[in-house]
Design a protein that fits this description.
The chain has 139 residues and is α+β, with helices and mostly antiparallel strands. The protein has a single domain, classed as Aspartate Aminotransferase, domain 1 (Alpha-Beta Complex), CATH 3.90.1150. It contains five helices and six strands; from the N terminus they run ααββββααββα. It has a six-stranded antiparallel beta sheet with strand order 1-2-3-4-6-5. The protein is globular.
Length: 139
């Protein structure tokens, strides 16, 4: 199982920490963060410590609604979404790639909805993630 690269609960990760840890993937972290903020001007960023087992994650929210999570790893990161039933239906009826639809269909279901995680190890999933952000924002 993979966990956050940031474990120390006394130290909130900094941009310098991210730059070093994510390496060449840092530019995609910054790009996706800006993408959300361009869509949602009132969005807020926050680091969240989930305990020793999971470490730090970063999330962008609009009020009480979390738009997406960023989960830092060594030399890459994951993005995660939680989709309610309405959003899940939108994804399945969209032009989203079959890989994403299969991931969503087999995803774990929580009280809040379907959890979908995508590893960003290169630029290949960026267009998919952009479309998922759009769906999340509209629902």
């Amino acid at each position: 199982m993979d966990f956050s690269i940031f474990w120390d609960d006394s130290k909130v990760p900094t941009e310098k920490d991210l730059t070093y840890t994510l390496g060449s993937m840092y530019k995609f972290w910054v790009y996706l963060k800006k993408f959300v903020h361009n869509k949602y001007e009132d969005a807020t960023d926050e680091w969240n410590y989930l305990g020793r087992k999971y470490g730090w994650n970063f999330r962008i929210r609009n009020g009480k609604k979390v738009i997406m999570y960023f989960l830092p790893r060594h030399k890459y990161f994951k993005v995660a979404f939680v989709f309610g039933r309405k959003s899940v239906d939108k994804v399945f009826n969209s032009n989203e790639s079959n890989k994403i639809k299969v991931k969503l269909e087999s995803s774990k279901i929580y009280a809040e909805g379907h959890a979908l995680g995508i590893s960003v190890i290169d630029k290949n999933y960026i267009p998919d993630i952009e479309r998922l952000i759009e769906i999340k924002i509209r629902n």
